[in-house]
Amino acid sequence: MPGKTPDKEPVENGGYRGGKDLKPKGKKASKKEGDDEMTVVVPPSKSSKQSSVPPPNDAEGDVAMDDAEKTAEGEAKVDPVAQTINDIKSNFALLDRAVALFDARFSLRALRSISSIRKRLTPDILAQAISETYASSSASANVARQMLLAIGRSDVPLGQQLGPDMEVDSEPKPSSKNGAKKEAKEVIPEVDVFLGILTQVLLHDSKQHQQGFEFSQFLVDQIRSLNRRTLDSLAAKVYFYYSLFAEQIAPLPPSLQSPIVSIRPTLLAALRTAVLRKDVDTQATVIVLLLRNYLLTSHISQADLLVSHTQFPENAANNQVARFLYYLGRTRAIQLRYTEAHEHLTAATRKAPSSACALGFSITATKLLLVVELLMGDIPDRATFRQPNMETALRPYFLLVQAVRVGNLGDFETIIAEHADAFRRDGTYTLILRLRQNVIKTGIRMMSLSYSRISLRDICIRLHLGSEESAEYIVAKAIRDGVIEATLDRERGFMKSKEVGDVYATREPGEAFHDRIRACLALHDESVKAMRFPMNQHRLELKNAQEAREREREMAKEIQEGDLDEDDLGGEFEGM
């Protein structure tokens, strides 16, 4: 009827005319007066579908086919080439924010994305990204052409799309020439260096070391011509690959004709500039590269002079600190300063990242640490060799430790002969050769613990020494160095051991406990130093303090002139 309200009109989808409405269970349909449509269509849940009348035979199949078609369409739209190019260009916004806000954290985020990009990076993808970023008339066109020349794509034009085989579905870009010129003018040097780093990574992964070294020289010259603090973290990465390319070009180190010798003046100049500009990233990276450079050519005295005349930055990145401690420990081990080497190598293994990508560094540092512990007269813990990811790599050193622990000189020489190639690859062969005296000392110490008195002849036979005079000399030196607590009777030709006391009555447990406490306190101090605080917060505090002092002066002046009294101030102002 015309006079009826809309809530009593016939409804669709099986509604009723009467006052009783059929409502689905578990659902509440709200109605408002004046609405044109009163029917609320609620899609049934999966449980209601299963409990209600079964659908036609092909209903479920149709749904499955629809989902499959949607999934196929979504997968077809994701082009790996376009995705890689978009990932590269997405870092440009981070670099722009790093320059605008003067915050290096955005640059570090861009650098961290390189590890995921390099797996999909190809010369064609990088060439297209460079072509779309630069215009032929831009100020950075020379840098772009050098990058294209380095990756073998010098025929790719700037500011244009490539051929149909490289066309990808991406966001529309301004096609006008003015828009392209405007975009080219906005390219900042940070973007140039970032794309240059990608070029270095591509050349290194494709083992084009000579081309990578030549391009790195050009990129280093470009960085040295700029004076921008927002380039610090990017420049450090450029110097890293610059040194890495030089190490892999013939003649290889330790030859003095190797290119690593020719790049030392460049690295030293970069270090001097970084210290003057307080560039922490470049300073830490270049110090580590110079130490590695000197050790590769066995210039130990120059490495020691570098450490003594430079100060490694305290707030450097943790990875650089770990590398610096490793090379410093290696230098001290070669200089026979085993105690300092043990401290540095222990700190390096503790600071090494726990991720799988840093496993090689952890294994290398652990191998050198094991040798240094043996040179100090200590026996490494067996749990070190039981780590699942290091067990195979540390197998030769496990056999070496067993021979040293027992004091068997014959087994020691046999193990060195069998695993000489592995020890030479690790750079520990010359240090392991020094262990012969330690093996003899260990054997003497084991015999001093086993026998209260033993003749020099028996010592000579057990240690495979040439004569009793050699055994007498070795025993006397071990007693003088404090390796054993015994007395030597030359007339009767025997060694008499002293009674072993309680080790807990000595200072050794306290010293070990003190070393652990000191390491924990040092870790706490470094964690506090690594905390970030708001920038320019001290200036805001100084401004507020200055405003407070000005208000006090004004109030004191008004009191002196008689404009204010204690009642106006609430009785809390006592005067100046």
From TrEMBL:
<dbReference type="InterPro" id="IPR057985">
    <property type="entry name" value="TPR_PSMD3_N"/>
</dbReference>
<dbReference type="Pfam" id="PF08375">
    <property type="entry name" value="Rpn3_C"/>
</dbReference>
<dbReference type="GO" id="GO:0030234">
    <property type="term" value="F:enzyme regulator activity"/>
</dbReference>
<dbReference type="InterPro" id="IPR000717">
    <property type="entry name" value="PCI_dom"/>
</dbReference>
<feature type="compositionally biased region" description="Basic and acidic residues">
    <location>
        <begin position="546"/>
        <end position="560"/>
    </location>
</feature>
<feature type="region of interest" description="Disordered">
    <location>
        <begin position="1"/>
        <end position="77"/>
    </location>
</feature>
<comment type="similarity">
    <text>Belongs to the proteasome subunit S3 family.</text>
</comment>
<dbReference type="Pfam" id="PF01399">
    <property type="entry name" value="PCI"/>
</dbReference>
<dbReference type="InterPro" id="IPR050756">
    <property type="entry name" value="CSN3"/>
</dbReference>
<dbReference type="GO" id="GO:0006511">
    <property type="term" value="P:ubiquitin-dependent protein catabolic process"/>
</dbReference>
<feature type="domain" description="PCI">
    <location>
        <begin position="322"/>
        <end position="502"/>
    </location>
</feature>
<protein>
    <recommendedName>
        <fullName>PCI domain-containing protein</fullName>
    </recommendedName>
</protein>
<feature type="compositionally biased region" description="Acidic residues">
    <location>
        <begin position="561"/>
        <end position="576"/>
    </location>
</feature>
<feature type="compositionally biased region" description="Basic and acidic residues">
    <location>
        <begin position="170"/>
        <end position="184"/>
    </location>
</feature>
<dbReference type="GO" id="GO:0008541">
    <property type="term" value="C:proteasome regulatory particle, lid subcomplex"/>
</dbReference>
<keyword id="KW-0647">Proteasome</keyword>
<feature type="region of interest" description="Disordered">
    <location>
        <begin position="546"/>
        <end position="576"/>
    </location>
</feature>
<feature type="compositionally biased region" description="Basic and acidic residues">
    <location>
        <begin position="1"/>
        <end position="11"/>
    </location>
</feature>
<feature type="region of interest" description="Disordered">
    <location>
        <begin position="160"/>
        <end position="184"/>
    </location>
</feature>
<dbReference type="InterPro" id="IPR036390">
    <property type="entry name" value="WH_DNA-bd_sf"/>
</dbReference>
<dbReference type="GO" id="GO:0042176">
    <property type="term" value="P:regulation of protein catabolic process"/>
</dbReference>
<dbReference type="InterPro" id="IPR013586">
    <property type="entry name" value="PSMD3_C"/>
</dbReference>
<dbReference type="Pfam" id="PF25573">
    <property type="entry name" value="TPR_PSMD3_N"/>
</dbReference>
<feature type="compositionally biased region" description="Low complexity">
    <location>
        <begin position="40"/>
        <end position="52"/>
    </location>
</feature>
<feature type="compositionally biased region" description="Basic and acidic residues">
    <location>
        <begin position="67"/>
        <end position="77"/>
    </location>
</feature>
